[in-house]
Amino acid sequence: MRRAFSSALPRQRGLSLIELLVAMVIGLVLTLAVTSIVTVGEAQKRSTTSTNDMDQAGAYAAYVLDRALRSAGSGLTQSIQPTDRGVFGCKLNAAALLPATAAFPAPFKKSFLPSATANLRVAPVLIGKSQSDAGSDVLVVMGGDAVAGGVPRGLTDPGSATTLSMDNTVGVSTGDVVLVSQNGTADCLLEQVSGTTAKVLTLGGTYYTAGKTTSLETLAASTSTYVTPLGNPANGNVQFQLFGVGDNRTLYGYDLLQVGGTTTSQALADGVAEMHALYGLDTNGDGILDAWADPGAKGYDIATVMTTTATMRQIVAVRVALVMRSASKEKDVVSPGTLTLFDGVLDASKNSLAQTVTLSATEDQYYRYRVVEFTIPLRNMLLLP
Predict the structure, then answer these.
(1) Is there a contact between 278 and 345 (Cβ–Cβ < 8 Å)?
(2) Which distant-in-sequence residues (6+ apart) come within 8 Å of 214 by Cβ?
(3) How far apart are CA 381 and CA 361, in angstroms?
(4) Measured between alpha carbons, how far is 349 from 93 in angstroms, rounded to an integer?
(5) N or C: which end of the chain has fewer CB within 10 A?
């Protein structure tokens, strides 16, 4: 008898429409959850990275300014002790560069010494209140670091329009820059050495000037004229610099002597929204800072300070405040409406010198800010008796 076998296999069941819809909903919920976590994480990462970049930029900007300001007046301060050799407050002549016949490049073009760029005078430190293109303060720093220690040397014999005669020329080499000055003479001449003998400096080269109002020949003929060695521009130890903030929230530096042929301002640090500064004063000559002064106050504006030697000698420190802004714009408001600078700082009359920076609610408050505030002693000024 033939046995019958069934060839039918068990039926395979698929997912129903409802099961598919449930699975899709669960998948979408998980996808949204993961996407939300990734989005929030990336936003926090951008915010953290932007804040770290801002902090690092602030630290670097503070370092650059500290390095420049701490050495301000090097090679110049010895020219006023024990007697004044006419350096502080003199009008600087340097080839065709100074006195300037036109505005300096941005961010010192619009407001820095308006209509008076030719009046820039020698001083260890000057602060131009709100004189950068972006409305921040401008710092002017001058100094040198010569092998000869910046000790002024008097002339011993009459010279000429290209020579200076001294007791000796030890420590002064070809290519060095010297400052020729005389007490009671408004002009001082920055000259470059093109050759030396035992007692004579021959002048020429990039920074040579015959003088604008006062001629080199006139100064060279007088034994009351002094020569102050400042260093060699090729070695980077001659400093005549401007520092200011541009419209693009960048700290810039400009070399007044255009060493290396640089005719434009150089970007130093980004993210700097504003820069403000105060003078630290030693008002009684005991070598201790005892008051602060706003560079916009009467008697401390840049035009007055750079022509008043007694005021320059009182300045022994500078307090700088940098307002740093992050590069990343946040979705929500993350900053207050105002930032306070120089909180607790007082002038000689015990009046507060605090300043307020206002942030707009429509734009600025969606960025993060840091106020980097620091005090820099002017060591060369503190060495003065």
Answers:
(1) yes
(2) 93, 185, 186, 187, 189
(3) 43
(4) 38
(5) N
Tokens found for residue 36: 């939300």
Mind listing the pLDDT tens digit of every residue in the chain (385 residues)? 555 555 555 666 677 888 788 888 888 888 888 887 877 766 666 677 788 999 999 999 999 999 999 999 998 998 887 788 999 999 999 999 999 888 999 999 999 998 777 889 999 999 999 999 999 999 999 999 877 667 899 999 999 999 999 999 998 999 999 999 999 999 999 999 999 999 999 999 999 999 999 999 999 999 999 999 999 998 888 999 999 999 899 999 999 999 988 899 999 999 999 999 999 999 998 889 999 999 999 999 999 999 999 999 999 999 999 999 998 888 889 999 999 999 999 999 999 999 999 999 999 999 999 999 999 999 999 888 6
90 in Cβ contact with 188 (< 8 Å): yes
Tokens in use for 184?
A: 């009671």
- Residue entry with tokens 């700088």: 320
Helix locations, 89-246, DSSP H? 216-220
Handedness of CA 117, 122, 128, 133 (dihedral sign): positive
